[in-house]
Amino acid sequence: MNVMNRPGESANRSLEDMMLAAVEGDRLALARMLTMVERGGDSSAEVARVSYRSKQRGQTVGITGAPGAGKSTLVEKLISVAREGGKSQVAVIAVDPTSPFSGGAILGDRIRMQSHAGDKGVFIRSMASRGHLGGLSIAVPEAMRLLEAAGMDPVIVETVGVGQVEIEVASATDTTVVVLNPGWGDAIQANKAGILEIADILVVNKADRPGAKDAVRDLQQMLDMAFSLGIHPRAMTKSTGASQEMWRPPVLETVASTGEGIPELWSAVENHRVYLEESGEGTLRRRKRAERSIALVLEAEMAKQLERIRSGHMYVSLVDATESGHSDPYEAAEKLMREADSGR
Ligand SMILES: Nc1nc2c(ncn2[C@@H]2O[C@H](COP(=O)(O)OP(=O)(O)O)[C@@H](O)[C@H]2O)c(=O)[nH]1
Ligand SMILES: [Mg+2]
């Protein structure tokens, strides 16, 4: 475990100390811990040991939608409104699957969010989508948890909603905002991709362009349909409260470039937080997220174990034995599993 012994880093600084420093506002400590999360394996396990034991919670907000929909512009404006509304520690994770390190999109996001560069209450971090086993789907939830533990609230995650993984990541937040644009078929496309189902809040951004009202109407109709048929996943959510009202995703219009509609969007985000708390849905979602995180780590561990088994001597000899008629696949697998268990 050499991650703690890199030149320039204090060799004996424990993760607990780093966490304490991060909570007290040491951004360098926080950034280092995030790097460890991205690195994966043992180093992310070390961070998880402290971050997952923190009682500190913040609202995690996923922002997803097609490239160019205006997500980064929206986030930039949302940060301002949240800060003005009294949020003292706002974090943003910008994930881009296409350009992990030097790509244009992240660079663009950086420039776009530059207006917050001098604000100590804002922490912005780009995250590589590749990196370690399970990649994005493991690293981002761990990073969110770390930022929450460090006292960040809200923790906003911007993903490009093109792939299943990105949708998964965005929907693994407390509140998921889906960003669409006016224009024929955008809403229908999103519906087909299953992206509407994960939305807690729907945003038609670029409402300065023609067709915004039509897009809003299309979305409302789709929601009407899904809710009346009871097929909308949010409609099926069993809440723990007895007389709990259902959350119907609001459909909002924004012009991110001018900031129009952003205060309303922030209000919707805050309303959703209240809903999550009062309905018990928030706890359910967090539980689901914990379950998923464990499952992903378990999968990765199992894959490693399988790799170990298949590279062992016993494997080769059992292949020979099966081929020559001295064993069979079932017996071979059983023997290998027993051997792996005893070898722990
Ligand atoms: N006309 C108009 N352009 C916008 C609006 N919001 C963002 N844009 C522009 O759309 C482009 C893509 O925005 P960006 O935030 O990078 O989109 P992202 O890829 O979803 O993060 C940029 O040139 C923005 O200036 C809007 O509300 N109206
Ligand atoms: Mg962006």
**What is the helix content?**
40-55%
Distance between the termini: 20 Å
- Quantity of strands, as a count: 7
Order of helices and strands: HHHEHEHEHEHEHEHHEHHHH
Just give the CATH class of the largest domain.
Answer: Alpha Beta
Shape: globular
Integer tally of domains:
2
Bound molecules: guanosine-5'-diphosphate, magnesium ion
What is the structural class? alpha/beta
Per DSSP, what share of the residues sits in E-state strands of 2 or more residues? Answer: 5-15%
From the alpha carbons, calculate the radius of gyration and give it in angstroms: 23 Å
Main pleated sheet: 7 strands, parallel
CATH architecture of the largest domain: 3-Layer(aba) Sandwich
Q: Treating each run of at least 4 consecutive H or I residues as one helix, how many helices?
A: 14
Major sheet strand order: 3-2-4-1-5-6-7
Low-confidence stretches: 1-12, 99-105, 238-243
The CATH homology group name of the largest domain: P-loop containing nucleotide triphosphate hydrolases
Classify the fold: give the CATH topology of the largest domain: Rossmann fold
From the structure above, extract its key features.
disordered N terminus, 344 residues, seven-stranded parallel β-sheet, alpha/beta, binds magnesium ion, Rossmann fold, binds guanosine-5'-diphosphate, 53% helix, 14 helices
What would your notes on this structure say?
The protein has 344 residues and is of the alpha/beta class. The chain has two domains: 55-282, P-loop containing nucleotide triphosphate hydrolases (Rossmann fold); 298-342, no CATH class. The chain has 14 helices and seven strands. The chain has helices at 15-23, 27-39, 41-51, 71-84, 104-112, 135-149, 164-171, 186-192, 212-229, 233-236, 262-279, 281-310, 313-323, 329-342, and strands spanning 60-65, 90-96, 122-128, 155-158, 175-180, 201-205, 251-254. Strands 3-2-4-1-5-6-7 form a seven-stranded parallel beta sheet, with helices on both faces. Strand 2, helix 5 and strand 3 (122-128) form a beta-alpha-beta unit. Helix 4 crosses helix 11 (262-279) and helix 6 (135-149) packs across helix 12. The longest helix is centred in the C-terminal third of the chain and has 30 residues, at 281-310. The two termini are 20 Å apart. 36% of the residues are buried. The protein binds guanosine-5'-diphosphate and magnesium ion. Residues 65, 67-73, 108, 112, 205-206, 208-209, 255-257 line the site of guanosine-5'-diphosphate (GDP).
